[in-house]
Amino acid sequence: MRTALLAAAACAIAIGVAAGQAGKSTSAAMALPDWSGVWQMVGPTVFDRATVQPQNGRAGDAGVREFPPYTDEYEAIYRKNIAKIKDGTFPDPISVCGVPHGFPRIMNVPDVYEFAVTPSATYVLAENGPGVLRVYTDGRTHPPAEELWGTYTGASVGHWDGDTLVFETRGLKESRDNDVIVDRTGLVLSDAAKVTTRMRKVNDMMMEAVIVVEDAKALKAPWKVTKQYRKMPAGTWAWDYGCAENNRNPISNSGKTLTLGPDGKPIDKKTD
Amino acid sequence: MKVTRLIAAVALCVAASAPLAAHHSAAMFDDDKVVELNGTIKEVQWTNPHIWIQVVVDNNGQKTEWSIEGGSPNTLSRNGWKATTFKSGDPVLVRVNPMKDGTSAGQFIGAKFKETGKTLGRWE
Fold first, then answer.
1. Can you give the CATH number for the domain in which B24 is found?
2. CB contact under 8 A, A239 and B45
3. Residue A223's pLDDT band (boundaries 50, 70, 90)?
4. Cβ contacts of A246 on chain B, cutoff 8 Å
5. Nearest CA distance, B81 vs chain A (angstrom)
6. What's residue A21's pLDDT?
7. Which residues contact B106 (CB under 8 A, 6 or more apart)?
8. Contact residues on chain B for A269, CB-CB shorter than 8 A
């Protein structure tokens, strides 16, 4: 009898502990903000709209530029890129289908976004892709520097500050021959870039990401950029984006973006 | 000559209407020019990263096929387009920013279906 009572008490305690843990887990999950829905970036794909000249300039148009606090070395690189745009020889690396936008560019792309919040990670899903940014919030820290290598979206580790996701991104791939860019005006960063992003829902219809880029090689001071995302109507679909499905704009050897006819052959009068 | 050049006093309108080239540099297109094509739909490639509309322009028996680049089907479908919006054989007027090198290709601005008068995109 005594054994049975002890067993019952042990069971009750175990059930209670389990229930408590489940309750904690549930309440932790419920405390996470609701970022569901489909969202679209506000404005054109100019990364730093606050400094772009001319003010309504579009990324990729000749003469359009922004004013990050570049070091002399990177200002010179940017100017070379701007000159290439004028010559029509500054291909967007994503024209090679399968090349990711990388970070922070993934926060600055057309089409739509979804933001998937889970207790252990938040995923930024850009329809225009491939475009996935993983932000781990499971308590991990960044890998040691010697274990990191440059990747397009780097390694992002974050935590929740109230309803704001704060995350730091390291291990970004250095732009070599413009194989990764920040936007189509020709902005690039180095592999020393470290980016801190604070992301939150401002109201039911607007998300905001405040992005602060530090880069000991490329920047003389932190570079702060704010991006906003407007919620699309309920029921909006995001679709897959199979860039290689029918890419009629390959890049020539000289960096010119070609146009293919329906037969798959270039129709440009000069290909290089 | 059924191809009419409307030298762009409307350049600003055109610039505002041309966010289509999301996947690649748009350096090949002349944003300062608008060409209006009077032709017939041959084929629509409803594909990523861009849709392509093939239009045949018949100039007194001399047929020229134009390749017209649009946005992604993803974005266009969210703006009311369907894969069947243009059908093979539809007589249309289509306005494009042409290629700078004079090639028979361009970036879609807007279209008018000649049989119904319905318009798509920017058509003022």
1. 2.40.50
2. no
3. very high
4. 45, 47-50, 52
5. 14
6. 40
7. B29, B35, B66, B67, B68, B69, B96, B97, B98, B99
8. 101-103
Q: Is A192 on the interface with B (CB under 8 A)?
A: no
Task: Tell me which long-range contacts B41-45 makes (C-beta under 8 A, separation of at least 24).
Answer: B41/B86, B41/B87, B41/B88, B41/B89, B41/B90, B41/B92, B42/B88, B43/A262, B43/B88, B44/B83, B44/B85, B44/B86, B44/B87, B44/B88, B45/A246, B45/A262
3-state secondary structure at position B1: coil
ipTM: 0.80
B91 lies within 8 A of chain A by CB: no
Chain A contact present for B118, CB below 8 A: no
A85–B77: do the CB atoms touch at under 8 Å?
no
- Answering whether pTM is above 0.95, one says no
B102 touches A: beta carbon within 8 Å: yes
Give the residue on A whose Cα is nearest the Cα of B77. Answer: A237
Across the interface, whether the CB atoms of A88 and B25 are under 8 A apart is answered: yes
Q: How confident is the model at residue B22 (pLDDT cuts 50, 70, 90)?
A: low
Residues B97-109: tens digit of each pLDDT:
999 999 999 999 9
Query: What is the tally of structural domains in chain B?
Result: 1
- Which domain range does residue B97 map to? 4-121
Four-CA torsion A20, A21, A22, A27, nearest 10 degrees:
90
The predicted model gives B72-81 an average pLDDT of 94
Cβ contact (<8 Å) for B52 and A236?
A: no
The CA distance from A86 to A146, in Å, is 39
